[in-house]
Amino acid sequence: MSIVELRQYTLHPGARETLIELFEREFVTGQLAAGITVGGRFRDLDDPDRFVWLRAFPDMDRRRRALEAFYGGPVWREHRDAANATMVDSDDVLLLNGRGYTPEPAARTVLATVCHPADPAAFDAYAARHLGPAHALHRTEHAENDFPRLPVRTGEDVRVWFGPADPPPRPARRGGGGGGRRVG
Question: How confident is the model at residue 175 (pLDDT cuts 50, 70, 90)?
Answer without folding.
Answer: very low
